[in-house]
User: Fold these one by one.
Assistant:
Number 1:
Amino acid sequence: MTGTVPPGAWQLPVRDRWLPALAARMPGLLLPTRIHPQAPAIREALASWAARTGLACGERETARLLAAGYDRMAARALSEEPVERAVLFARWLAWLFAFDDELDTGASSQDAGAVRARYAMVMAAASDPRGPFGTPLETAFADLWQVTSARTSVSWRDRFLSHMDDQREAWISETTARAEARPPGLSAYGEHRRRSAGQFIFDLPEAVLGLEVPAAVLATEEWRTLTDAANDVTAWCNDIASLPKELAAGEVHNYVLVIAQDLGCGIPEAVEHVTAHIIRRCEQLPAVVAGVVRLCGDLGMPGGEIRRISRVATALQALPGTHMEWLLESGRYHSGSPVPA
């Protein structure tokens, strides 16, 4: 499987062809959601912060940032939370995707040493958020880290940064494989994709909600299953959405392309396989959340603590649906790029 798009490719954008069909087959994924009543304020706060940190300067960059819809994803995910929590989440989302773009398409995408250097600069911003910094990515991260670290424990911060280390190693692996024209194998791709997607993303609900999960729960198979399932669904849906861009770039680190290579099938068949995997994963989520709550009871936790942990677990369960709604409306992946039949 290569990135070459053969003649006769479908002209309908992949987002318009496959994502709505996937959503229609997953009624339990797109749960009824509401938009935060202060959604315009979240949007404005995101734009002003991006301008202040240099992440998006000028009308063109600001318009591109707002078209991506990170503010709306946050406004859906935290529709009933205080507005400052939704603003913080929106800013983290904007930074995460900007960082992803830098790793995916910037100079770092072809050079493992550049990947290490980029992560080192970000980690330095976590160690000393006072600066000065060389890039807007570092400035924005330092600003976010100051706000987030003030509301989290040392153990949460260590866990978040450890998950960033995991992502760095996954990106280095991808960069090396790309340079060697070595496609990923299916057997190892699942765990690799979780690490490259960024497990730290699924640490953020605790920080944003101000509800940290105790170490006794974090260490259990039940909690790992929950975060893995939420990560898998969002990452695999994202792989479907980003398929045209990655085909055009000759990228092979995409679940659809890994399946197509392993099975020797075409893109539509591979998308169907990935879709089936997404559906199975989504169907597991309610039982997994119930298992976490049951586990807390078995550990003898008081009712108030169980309710707090349940809030975080429910937020993780809802993230894939919120992410899917975002994929369907965001300007980030809106492209008429052809996809091979």
Number 2:
Amino acid sequence: MSEHLPVSVHPSSEHVHCPAFVQDAVFSLEHVWLAYGMGEDTREVLRDVSFGLHQGARVGLYGPNGSGKTTLLRCVTGLARPQRGCVRFHGRAVSKDFRELRRGVGFVLQNADDQLFFPTVLEDVAFGPLNLGHTPEAARACAVETLESLGLSGFEHRLVHRLSGGEKKLVSLAGVLAMRPEALLLDEPTNGLDNEARERLIHILQNLSAARIVISHDWEFLQQTATEYMTIVDGVLSARTTSIIHAHTHAHPLIYSPGFCVSPSTL
């Protein structure tokens, strides 16, 4: 593999110093540990996670329910705070104030209803640009342009609560894209979508240039929207090749990246 990977994953070892993966990354995590509970009830969700997402990356993240996939994205955006480790945005450590990172990294939640809170579509999509300091006129123009780019022209004055599940998902994506993020985090974006909405989402993602991590259990969807793959097993984040993703493929090569080697036999 090239030394300049769009996504870099590094081994969990206190003896490995790997500053290179932070360089030029949109965001990165360094030796992040996160656990829930206390005492005997403590459960480690993320164990010594280190990786960086670079421009152009299209990463599919998969794993069992409860393995820590959503928690990982929440750590990136400051919605979950690790007990140890560091989050960086363009190489700068972020500890308390995640506002700048959230401007550059858009998070599309699994449940669109958790992300839509204005009566009309236009108000919802324009909220992000307004929050960035745009004038109301500029924010509306940005919202209209974004809706048009997603094939949602004419939705501006529709009531959010009357949209279908697929329409809500696309509108929540529009609200994030209207902020012109450098990177996207999408949590199970195909949940609840019919085939038409799913195909529409695939087409949209295939034509987006922003770096992204997509969580999904939908293998076919990941194959069409991602070019690299990661998984979380027992709290450990590791890279995987497409040969492991395909359920009917029996080739199991080792994965190499700078300072990193993992055997697919651990799956």
Number 3:
Amino acid sequence: MNDKIIRTLNADVFSMTHHLFGAGMALTCLALISNQSAAHPGHNQNPQRAMSQTEVPPPGESKVTIQIRGDYRHIDANGLPNHDTGHFPGPGNPNAIATQNYHFRVPITPEARDKPLPYERQPFGIALNGVLFDPFTAEFWKKDPNSGWREAADPNHGSLGIDANHAHVQPNGAYHYHGVPVPLVTDTTRMTLIGWAADGFPIYGPYGHKDADRTNGEIVLLQSSYQLRPGDRPVGAPPGAYDGTYDQDYEYVAGSGDLDACNGRTGPTPEFPEGTYYYVVTNDYPYVPRLFRGEPDPSFDLRGHNGPPNRPRRNRPGPPNRGAR
């Protein structure tokens, strides 16, 4: 194993053991195989419910391994969180948490694409504790996916049964994050590595340096560059003003926040002092990024039990943007 890989592996182990899991946590694991054609069918569509308090232990021990083999970082996990959760089944979400069988890989030297890549029907990435980041819902205006108006899951207000960890459960029992995984971000004075995106770039919590080019400057709560569109929705769309009920209520406005259209930026981090592109899971929309900067690994594609092993990815139109970069 060369020095570069050793340094990267040491960064992984250091971040996991000292900033997340603590000594003695078992490490093992498991692949996203789902026969669900949509991410969240069956959820109660009452959009604003009180968050479910996180006081229920997961149904088993969280198990995850992250290893570098060759040109890839391999992540195997059982999908169970290493922290308490809300009540599932519960109001807004009728699904119980169940053990999963995840086997993912991401490149250790990801490359940026010329243009951001939209995605849907697959997770964005995986947290260091083996829980997926999966931002999209399967709820649409008039229950019609062809309407083009997808209901936005607001992790800050408990929509769709989301708990205080900003997570809820899919019909197959997969617990997954829709926003900042609160138990993984306990220090607001430093950048915190919280996971890996499907394209291999690192994912950080919402706190970062005010100056992206510095590693010893002021730490601030990073803001996305997505804004609510002004005015009312057009004729033929859900009636009323753009109020955040739907993903399409937002647009990317370059320079209005700290991050680019992929909810990321380039700069040094504690794990990558020489600099890297990295994503940020923010407290404001889009919460979990909705565009890839690099090429996601096929291991993150959702697969039906009887479907082809690598179903072509169906890109979704993202929120409108002005000056996406």
